[in-house]
Every structure is written in structure tokens, then in C-alpha cells.
Amino acid sequence: MKKILLIIAFVISLGGIAQDQYTKGMQKAFSLWEEGKIAEASNLFERIALAEQDNWIPYYYAAQVNAVSCFGLKDEVLLTQRLEKAKEIVDIAKRLSPDNAELLVQEATINMAWIVFDGATYGMTLSGKNTQLYQEALALAPDNPRVVFSKAEWDMGSARYFGKDTTPYCKDVEKALELFATFESDVPFYPGWGEDRAKQVLQNCKS
Amino acid sequence: MKNQILIAVVLLGSCFASAQTTVSGRVTDKSGNPIPEANVYLEGTYDGASTDIEGSFYFETSESGTQTLAVSVLGYEPHYEMGEVSYFENLTIVLVEAINQLTGVTLSAGTFEAGDNSKVSALKPLDIVTTAGAAGDFVAALQTLPGTTTVNEDGRLFVRGGGAGETQIFIDGLRVFQPFNATTVNLPTRARFSPFLFKGITFSTGGYSAEYGQALSSVLLLNSIDVPDQEKTDISAMSVGAGVGHTEIWGDASLSFNTQYINLSPYETLIPSTQGMRWNSPYESIAGEAIFRSRGDKSMFKLYTGFNYANFDIEQEDINFEEFVRFRLRNNNLYYNSTYRYFFDNNWTISAGGSISWDTNDIGVLTDEIQTRETASHVKLKLKKMFGSRFTLNMGSELFNINYTETFTAPDGFTFDSDFNDRIWAGFAEGDLFFSNELALKLGARAEHTSVLGEFTIAPRLSLAYKSGEYAQFSLAYGDFYQNPLSEVIKFDQDLGLEKTSHYILNYQYLKNGKTFRAEAYYKDYDNLIKFDTELPQFDSQFDNTGEGYAAGLDIFWRDNKTVKNLDYWISYSYLDTERNFRNFVETATPNFAPKHNFSLVTKYWVDKLKSQIGVSYNFATGRPYENPNTPGFLNERTRTLNNLSINWSYLIDQQKILFFSASNVLGFNNISDYQYANTPNANGIFDRRAITPPADSFFFVGFFWTISADKKSNQLDNL
């Protein structure tokens, strides 16, 4: 009996250590990201992902670090490297966690970075793809605030381009904000971004 | 017992707490330059670090024993080192540069690629279909590229002094036997398939891979889309017909189809074509295409099918006949193409595929009837192995089977049958070797055996590329190319040899910030060309292989889509010096289809305020050789120069509706492609002639395109 207890204690403690290491590592990576150390943060997220093996979360952030850094970037070589790397990472994550709406939104973010960089070249080919991604994501997770918000923001952008009324999508943003208020996940480091930007967008709706 | 547990716990705890080992060192490239931002870590652990600006790294680990130290960074091959952790101190790690397909050298001599992210993309699929003057025919758009000559009464591709029969078209690596709509002389044809089923188009004007054969001049490779973006329905209404298409997606499988009905009657009633012809019954066709795709984890399956039914009845002027000559045609074409690819874990890829076509023509010329039946198939098995990023091996084997029969019936009951059955076997092997990001070599060979001629050939292919600067590269290519005589010959005489060309190509390319410059000089040596002693090949002609010739020239391409906002333009210029003695030529001369200078300017301007794209294309060619029997010499006179200014305008009514308008040759230049002379002189001893001109100087097209998709956003701009 005692032996069994011992083994259980041992396993728990090991798990605890692993958990701590994961938490510590992730926190470190986030602080690197905050300091603007893109490559270091991406490297650390990747190391964690490789060590964890079946956890999509560090892959998600490795992709996000690279993708987000590309908005406003003018260096085509660096941008191409980062976005292609981000896409590869998202593809790995999608294999670990199929039908994951957060990853579809992430993939759409990468496409968006291409479109923002060179709309003439990538707009026509990737905007259809993005619309499909947001739709799939919404079908998988209709109550995920990031999905609802990202789709609304995308639809607004398209409507604005064609000189159409964007107000119908304000409703979706409002709905997203309601969802943000109640959204919870017990997965550590589950994506949590979006609420601030949604508030901003809603502000624009009202002004 | 208690004590033991205590000891164990204490031991375990201490084990985790202590024994920190330092791992440190420096990462550099071959020349000793530091590599920053590299990811250095012990595999399977959390322990690692990024290198700093000096390439140095330092971290501590509690791991012990034998571990694998991994180093990875973009642009270099990953590096692994196995050993005792305690030895991982003050390491010097030299990384090998990875072959970068994006910025490294490419094997591109002689090719134009239109792919989404392909670096050598001179054109994108969208560019091709929005070119003014092309009217949605992507082959017509390719005619604005250098290396092609404008032979606008034909519609097919004439490449670097070669005839239209010297170009072959492949879909997903499998031959398309009848890529163009059936037509008659002086009535330009169009490609049968719609460009929007394809994600990439590679147009090689010479020196192409050993994977392709039976084409003396050029290959056009079309790769179909693997996974469509979204479900949608397309509806189009045009001045010449109507069409409907749909894409359905079920998870990893998808089906796209489109069907189109074309009838020139209403258009011809409104704006009749009157130059040297009149319609009894204008061109009418019904055509459809469908493609089913299914993607597995490591595999891809596709089935493409296309059918086409067309008929027309026309009367055309002929100098040798008082009355117009009547020509009737009914064509049926059915084509299947299926491919399967499987990706093995060890970097092997296997591709297997087959295509088959049935084509029938019922033709009436004056009072004669001609029936043709052709069944042709192609099966292919290909293996590809990548050895790291530096060496790729491609090899395969293929079999073509062509069965052709033709029956000629005269009104008096006389009939004449001609036919042939040809089986061509081919095997090929080719290696792509990247010595570095600056130097690459492609070396291959193709062996072929053709049953109808009983001949065996081996054709070497070679291509070498050197990147001389960040944006510039030079390429060299050489290859031998064999092709069977065309059906029009082989159906009468099978005791002939293969026609042959050798290509020598030197290419320079400069790519920077949305600007592309290409210059390509070439020499083509033609040998064993078919000759015959009648005006056209016929059952009693004497055929032999004694023809020969050459083509030499310079192709220039310039494209810029960055300098002026919203303006995209390209300029092509081709200089062509060619002479040959083939067919029924009495001596060596430049053929009618080979004007010396060709120039194209294509522009597209996006007007954001009008939500419109406006395109203007201008095309110029110097006079084409023609034979005048009233003067001495052979084929030594030239027609007047060709000029053509075309415009198009696509207007996005909203996200889903587009109005499209195009007009070719808006200035109404009267272009002459050739002269036809009477077979016998008139009373004054002069041979009379008539100019061969297009049926109408200009052609107008109006279309309305409506896309219905769940997202209410996509449109058919990319289909135009």
C-alpha cells in the first residue's frame, strides 16, 4: 500500500515539476516577446513545443509571435521567412489538434499579414481562403469570442473596401464582447487576446 | 521501511536540484561569420537558448549522460550533435547553408511560370486571364510572352520558329491530345479548358525537362488546384453564350464543375463577319469540365474530365473557285485524366496517372466527306526522391497509345481509308543538384521507342544556373528533342523517321522589388524534318526525312508592377531569325508563320474609385513571308506589318457581380496574314491573288458574371 502511495506521490511530483517547467518556460517566452525579442521568444516557444510533443499551445504562440511581427514589416525576405515558418508551425499544430477554431483563426491571421503586405498580389488569392477559414472556425466554435470577433472584423474590412455599410457587423462585435466576458478555459495559457481590440472596434461603430 | 522512503524522496529531490551542467559555444557559418538567433537546445528537454549577435549561446541543464544538442535557424541545415552533456562546453558549431528555394538559384532557363508563390513567376494565373485581347483564352494571353510569334489566324502557340504542332500541353503531367477546339483554316481556335481550375501554369519555350518529350519546341504544363478555397456557384451571361459552375467541398474531398454553351449566331446577326467568309450556321458548342479531388494525410487523388461538342457550317472565299467553298464540321471530344500521388516518410514520392481521349470529327468540304476517329491514351509512373535539400532525383516511365482512322468519301462513292496505330514507350531519369545557393545543375536523359516508326532514341537534357548577385542569375540549357511526324503525314506513310531539334539557350534574369528583366538568346538546330512533293500531305505524296533548318533569336521581357501605383505592365520583344526546308518547300526559306520582330505591350490599371480594372494591350509584328509566283525567288515577299490595339474593362458592381467588356483591334487595322494565289495564271499570264485577313477586323465581348458563395464576397474576376 505504502509503495503504491509512494509511486503516486512520485508521479504527482514529477508531473508537478513538468508543469512548473512548462509554466516557467511559457512565462519566460511571453516576457521575451514583450521585450520585442521576436526570435528568442519564437525559439523558446518552439523548444517548449518540441519538449511537450502533443501540446498545441506553444506551437500556437510560436506561430503568433512570427505572424504578428509581420504587420508593418517592409523587409520582404524577412517577412516571407517568418510567415512561411508561422504557416509550417500552424500546420503541425493542426495535426496535433484537428478541428481547433483558434488555429484556424491563427492561419487566417498569417494570410492577413500577406494581404496587408501586398494586397495586389495576395488579396485575390488569399481573401477567399480566409473567408472559408473564418466560416469553418465559426461552425466549429460559434461561442468562441475570438472567432466571432475576427470574422466580424474581416467582414467589416471587406464591406468597407466595397463601400458597403459596416454597421451590420457591429452586432457581431457586441456579441463577441458578451462572449469575452464569460469565456473561460481550464487549459493553461489558452489564447485570451482580442477583447481590447473588440472594444476599440465597437467604439468606432458608435462614433 | 519508512526510512527507505524518506531516503528515496530526499535522493530524488536532490537529483532534480543539483548537478547543473553548463552548455555553451558559438555558432558560425562556413566562413566563420556569427549566426545570431539560432535555436540551440537539448532535444526532448526544456533546456536551451538562442544565440546572441556574436553567435554565442550559454545555458545550464540538469540533464546528464548522453544527449542530443540540436541547432536550428532559418536559412541553414539543422545541426545535431550527440554526446555527454559535460562535453558540450565551448563548442564551435559550423552550420551548412540550406538550399533556399525562395532566394536561391533556380533552374529556369526557357520557362515562364505562373504560380502563386513561385519565384520565377513572370505572370500569375490572374494576370493571364485579365489580359486585354485574350478574351479569357489563356493561350492567347501566353502569346504576349517573348518567344512566341503572333499567328492570329491560327490561335495556337508558335514558339521560336516552330510550327503549332511542335508544342505539347500537359495537365498534371499527363498529355492532352486535343487541347484546342476543332476548327478550320483562318478561323482561330481557343484552348478547351478554363484557366481557373489550375493553380500553376509553366510555359517552357525550350530546353525543358527530360520528363517531357514528343515536342520539338515547347511544352505547356498545367497543374490543377489541390484544394479549392471555398464553395461557390458561378453564373455567367455573355454576348456569345452562357455558363454555370459550382464547387462543393466535403472535408478533404471536393468537386468543381463548369459547363458552357456558346453560340455565335446572335453576335453574328448583330456584327457579321464578312471578310472572305459567310456563316451558314455559326459556331455553336457545348462544353463541360469537372474535377474531383480527394486529399489524404499523405496522398492526393484527382480525376478530371472534360467534354466538348462543337459544330459549324461556313463558306470561305478561295481564289481557285468561283463560288465560296463550303466547310462543315462536327466535333466530339471526351477527355479523362486521373492522377494519384503518395508521399512516403523517407522523402520518396510516387505519382501514377493516366489520361485517355476520344475525338471524332465529321467534316464536309465541298461535296467530299471526311470522318476521323482518334483514341489516344497516356499512362505514366513517376518516382521522386529528395536527398536533403541539395539533390532531387526524378525518374519514370510512360506509355502513349494512339489509334487514328480516317475515311474519305467522294460523292461518286469513292472511299479511301488511312490509319495508324502508334505505341510510344519512354523512360526518363533526371537529377537536380544544388551545389550551393549560387550554383545548380539539372542533368537528365530520355529514352523513347516508337512502334509505328520502329525507332529508338536517346535525348540528353542539361541545364545549369549560376546566381551572380542578389537579384541576378545566368542560366544555360541544352537538350535534344524528338517528335513523331504529325498525324497528317503518318496516316499516309509510316516508313519515316523522327524529326529532331537541339536547343542551346543562354538566359539572364534580374528580379528586384516587383521588377523582372529577362533576356534569353537561343539557337535551335532542326534535322530530319518531313518533306513531301504535293501542296498538302495526301495519299499519293512522296514523303522523306530530308528537311532541315535552324532558328536563332533573342527574347526580352520586362515587367514592372511597383513603380506606378495600381499600374502593372509588361513588355515583350522577340527577334527571330529562322529558315528551314521542310514540307513542300522548293528551297530553304523563312516560313509564313515566322515574322522577324514581335513586340507586345500589356498594361493593366486598377482604378479604385471606379472599382474597375482597365487593360490595354498593343501588339506589333513585322511582315510575314509569302510566296508570290509572279516574281522570282521563293517565299521572299513580306506582308504589311501587323498592328493590334485591344482594350478591356472589368467593373465590380459589388462583391459578387462583375461587368466585363472587351474589344480587340479597336483601331481597326486591316491585318493580312498571307496571300493566296491562283493555281493557274489568268489571260495576261499573271497569277491572281487574294489577301487572307481575319473574318472581322475587331471582336467585341460583353459579359456579366455573378458568383454566389456563402460568404457573399468572392467574384469571378479571376475567371475572366
Describe this structure in words.
The complex is a heterodimer of chains A (207) and B (720). Chain A is mainly alpha-helical and 207 residues long. Chain A has nine helices and no strands. Chain A is globular, with a radius of gyration of 19 Å. The N and C termini of chain A lie far apart (69 Å). Chain B is globular, with a radius of gyration of 30 Å. Chain B has a 22-stranded antiparallel β-barrel. By secondary structure, chain B is mainly β. Chain B has two domains: 78 residues, Immunoglobulin-like (Sandwich), CATH 2.60.40.4130; 609 residues, TonB-dependent receptor, beta-barrel domain (Maltoporin, Chain A, Beta Barrel), CATH 2.40.170.20. The longest helix of chain B is centred in the N-terminal third of the chain and has 16 residues. The interface between A and B is large, with 37 and 41 residues.
Brief sketch in words of this structure:
The complex is a heterodimer of chains A (207) and B (720). Chain A is built from 9 helices and no strands.
